[in-house]
Amino acid sequence: MYHMQTGHAVGFWRKYVFSTDHKVIGLQYMITGLFMAILGGFLAYAFRMQLAYPNEAVPLFGQVGPDVYNAMVTMHGTIMLFWVAQPILVSGFGNYLVPLQLGAEDMCFPRLNMLSYWTFLVSTVLLVASFFVPGGAMGGGWTGYPPLNARMDYTGVDWGGTLWILALALEFAAALMSGINVLSTTLNMRTKGMTLFRMPLFVWMQNAANLIFMFSVGPLIAGALMLLADRTLQTGFFIPAQGGDPLLWQHLFWFFGHPEVYVLLLPALGILTEVIPTFARKPIFGYRMIVYSVVAAGVLSFIVWAHHQFVSGINPQLAVAFSLTTIMISVPFAVIIFSFLATLWRASIEYKVAMLFALGMLAEFLIGGVTGIHLASTSTDIYLHDTYFVVAHFHYTMFPVTFFGMFAGIYYWFPKMFGRKMNEGLGWIHFLVTFVAFNVIFIPLFAFGLAGHQRRIYDPSLWENLVPYQHLHVIATAATIVLLLGQIPFVFNFFWSMKKGRKAERNPWKSNTLEWDTPSPPGHGNFEAAPVVYRWPYEYSAPDREEDYRPQWLAPEAKP
Amino acid sequence: MLQWLPENIASYGAQYDAVFANIYYIVGAWFLAAELFLFFCIFAFGRRKGRKAGYLPGHSWKAMSWVLIPAVVILGFDLAIDHQQVPMWRAIKEKQPPADQTVTVKGKQFVWDITHPGADGKLGTEDDKQTMNQLYVPVDKVIHLNLEAEDVIHSFFIPNLRFKQDVVPGRSIKGWFKAVKTGQYKISCAELCGVGHGNMGGWIHVLSEQDYQKWLRGEEITTSRLDKDSL
Amino acid sequence: MSTAATATLDRYESPSVATGRMGMWWVLASEIVIFGGAVVCYLLYRWHHPEWAESAVHTNELIGVINTVVLLTSSLTIVLAHDAAHHGDAARAKRLMGFTILLGLAFLCFKAYEYSHEVAAGFTPVKNLFWSFYYFLTGLHALHIVAGLIAIATVMRGVGRRENMQRVEYVGIYWHFVDVVWIFLFPLLYLAPKF
Ligand code: HEM
Ligand SMILES: [Cu+2]
Ligand SMILES: [Cu+2]
Q: Which of A363, C17, C48, C52 has the fewest CB atoms within 10 Å, i.e. is most exposed?
């Protein structure tokens, strides 16, 4: 079997493995991300079982001790953010769609793009390898706080922590390379007629995300090198006894960490800006207003970081200032959310699965948003900081963004990517199970946080003040299992539809943006002829036209 | 939701929980309004034969005001929330009422080392009383804490007092509280500090004046959990 | 090779900056925040530790000055190389890039000499935080020198074949950046602490 293919080997490797085609690279990023999602989800299953039944071995995993628990939680967080959300939403969808939506043939640095993916793959290998080194994987929290993580003795984690830092550094480098491509391509490779304010909002969001990433990650890269030196050479950058300051790390980390949540959020909102108008058959409401809101939020995102440090020992007056900026940043996001709501007003909604996930993301993200106010308010944060309230809050932001956003994108662009449609019935089941189970996991965790449940403890049954509420953990764990099982229809649907799904024409959803002017799937070079753009991308249900959409590439009809 | 908060025994407790409730109701109202609108649209504007969607690109200021005005109102509410909550924060973290007594709490992997002043009421003297994970305080007295750490960052968390402060090696951070109800309440560590983080905790014993004097003299007190040394 | 970059120019909305140059600017933007973050950390610590002046006395400012001159000269040669490439004089461009590489190597040799003497005198990276920062900042910079040298050598090979002459400019931009970083590091590490 194997040697039979060697005749095609060169073609195959160039085409699907060492490819410089932005579409292949985008898919590589996505598929790698999806694999890591299985790992991240499995970890969530294992430690949720431990939380619900602390003294029993976890089926399919085994006994969970405190060291293993810490490692699992840390790796779960790290993987979900940097090996699932970021590669799928930013590098994956970004790579696949930005050149298509701009009407370009490829990214402007295709080989840099390939280097980006392979760097990312190496980082993935390093991260996964870190589970198997002596001392186990990193167990010091996804935030990597020193002094805990600056000396091996404090955690007992040896190589795991060092590999964790190296893997992150490589992942950042890969994301930077991919970002440079998105930014340059957007500036230099817009097809004729594609002015900046005719770009789909998805492209705007991708660019904003990559810019924010680029300008926030630098100091953390410097800090990560310092932490690495502390771990391996015993320097004292973050060790007070040697003159270092542990709080400096927190500043470096959150100067990146907060903008990073927007790096993940914006591409997901970008997916919604394409999916919602298409299935609402209505223009997005307030295009420019959304662009300006994104810019405002991007700028503000650099001056809110210390809201993660209200009780960390920073100057209390500083905390008040950061509380104010944090509260301000809710305004641009309110504008964006309201714009989506206004887009739905008097719409003509098609309940396709992509639309369901998009609407689901809106509905869930709102909960994440409003619970953030309790955390942005300094005084209430005293109590809530580092409790399960925070865990529930950020999962209500990050889960909808990562998974609802991603699923909306996959169901929507699948016909473009593989030339076939996914099955809607299975999709509905997938959506309903995911939607319900997700809420049943995390609503109880809000309550548990209010009851005073601190984060990152491996055995709640040791805590008399928590024991009365143990049933909440059981509920959340049961729902986790349901949620994970609920992904089976998706996985099946994905692979089955690739081979057997209904054939999709070029523009199955009757959308306006340029990627729908290519064959499904698009060949190398994307367009059969260079497209020309005549209008903005959201011309749905225009009163002067019978059809309810008017693509960007359609030449204006001659006026009688 | 708010009934999940544990009993509040801090002198500023009622006020504190009021801030909580206030935010809760404001954002709760916004949340309900937004979700109701969303679900209304989802169900009311489904695709129907013969009906075309409206064409509302929202390009004009007039149209945009439908979005901008609510956003400004939100900003107003946000500022009002902050205005109301900041004094609470100041009262807890910035202004400290004069101390009746000062206790040193030192976090280290994985215990709270607690130094109480002895009968002389001063720290750093012969009769200081040292305990592990057990904090003894008289009721209705302003207690100041010197919060310190020996190795890594921990976080001193007493849910019933709504008290939390990270302890950072190399620094001594001041905190205060006044407990208004006797009893034993849980102390935990809220910042990941290593493998023993999930076991790091203790009890605060809020004692009546007589009991506190007895404890100082080393006599038996008739409360139940006093011999519990670990968690 | 890169089909897209060389595609017919009027295929796209008028590009503002040459694509390669723009890519380089983005690389520099990413690098600036990395070095910026590192230097700001150093400055913050320096502020709180006036006693670092005592350690800083032991840096070798003579070599620091020599290295500054070496790097500035190398910036000059790369500018000249760009100029030559611009006028299509590949041989001259190649020669000047060769000079630049030699100067970069000289910088590294001086730096290595300096490190070895410092370590021999007991000023290792773990001596105290000043020295940790010294090795961290100069080491990070030296790595960028190495990367720059590799990039220049790669471009030089292409120039020999008269390919991609525009890339001389792009590596030149990068090399200037590395130079400018040194112009910041030199006073901050070698000079300022002494006064
Ligand atoms: C399968 C669904 C998921 C479940 C059941 C789940 C559950 C949890 C729980 C219970 C914790 C807290 C553990 C503890 O503090 O002891 C946690 C931590 C965390 N989760 Fe998830 N999660 C899920 C998906 C996600 C996603 C999609 C993301 C982000 C994109 C994410 C990011 C994180 C992060 C960053 C942490 C903090 C890790 C740390 O404390 O160092 N999780 N997760
Ligand atoms: Cu934040
Ligand atoms: Cu702890």
A: C48
Cα(C112)–Cα(A272) distance, integer angstroms: 54
For residue A141, the SS3 value is coil
The total of structural domains in chain A comes to 1
A416-458 pLDDT, tens digit per residue, is: 999 999 999 999 999 999 999 999 999 999 999 999 999 999 9
C5 touches chain A (CB under 8 A): yes
Closest to A159 (Cα-Cα) out of A237, A231, A76, A241:
A231
Q: Could you tell me the distance, in angstroms and rounded to a whole number, from the CA of residue A369 to the centre of ligand 2?
A: 12
How far is the C-alpha of B140 from the C-alpha of B117, rounded, in Å?
17
Is residue B7 in some structural domain?
no
**Residue at A174 is within a domain:** yes
The full set of domains in chain C, from first to last, is: 18-194 (1.20.120.80)
Sheet with B134-138: strands ordered across: B134-138, B201-207, B183-189, B154-158, B163-167
Neighbours of chain A (3+ CB pairs under 8 A): B, C
Atom number in ligand 1 closest to CA A483: 1
CB A252 within 8 A of CB A288: no
Contacts of B60 (CB under 8 A, 6+ apart): none
Together in a domain, B63 and B162: no
Condensed to tens digits (0 to 9), the pLDDT of residues A61-92 reads: 999 999 999 999 999 999 999 999 999 999 99
How close is the Cα of C135 to the center of ligand 3, in Å? 33
Residue B3 maps to a domain: no
B217 with B162, same domain: the answer is yes
Restricting to A residues 188-247, those with a Cβ less than 8 Å away from any Cβ of C are 188-195, 214-223, 225-226, 229, 233-237, 242-245
Distance between CA A150 and CA A236 in Å, rounded? 8
Show which of B74, B94, B114 is a domain's final residue: B94
Q: CA C50 to CA C68: how far, in whole Å?
A: 26
Convert the pLDDT of each residue in A316-342 to its tens digit: 999 999 999 999 999 999 999 999 999
Q: Which residues contact A448 (CB under 8 A, 6 or more apart)?
A: A388, A466, A469, A472, A473, B4
Tell whether the model's pLDDT for residue C195 goes beyond 70.
no
What residue numbers bound the domain in which B176 lies? 101-230
- Nearest residue (CA) to ligand 1, atom 15: A456
A102 domain-assigned: yes
- Give a yes or no: residue B153 inside a domain: yes
The Cα–Cα gap between A271 and A407 comes to 10
Interface list for A 27-86 with B (CB within 8 A):
66-67, 69-70
* CB < 8 Å from B in window 425-464 of A: 446-448, 450-452, 454-459, 462-464
Residue closest to A44 by CA, chosen among A376, A402, A380 = A402
Nearest by CB to C132, from A109, A229, A245: name it: A229
Give the distance from CA A290 to its chain's centroid. Answer: 20
User: Measured from the CA of A78, which atom of ligand 1 is nearest?
Assistant: 35
Task: Note the pLDDT of residue B222.
Answer: 65
Q: Domain range holding A76? A: 21-123+156-183
Alpha helices in A53-158 (DSSP H): 66-78, 93-102, 110-129, 152-155
A530: nearest CA partner in chain C: C11
pLDDT at A33 over 80: yes
- Confidence at residue C16, expressed as pLDDT on a 0 to 100 scale: 76
Q: Is A110 in Cβ contact with C2 (below 8 Å)?
A: yes
Is the pLDDT score of A507 beyond 50?
A: yes
What band does A95 get if pLDDT is binned at 50, 70 and 90? very high
B58–A286 CB contact, under 8 Å: yes
| pTM of the full structure | 0.95
Best probe of the A interface among C3, C8, C12, by most A CBs < 10 A, is C12
Question: Helices A22-52 and A66-78: crossing angle, nearest 10°?
Answer: 150
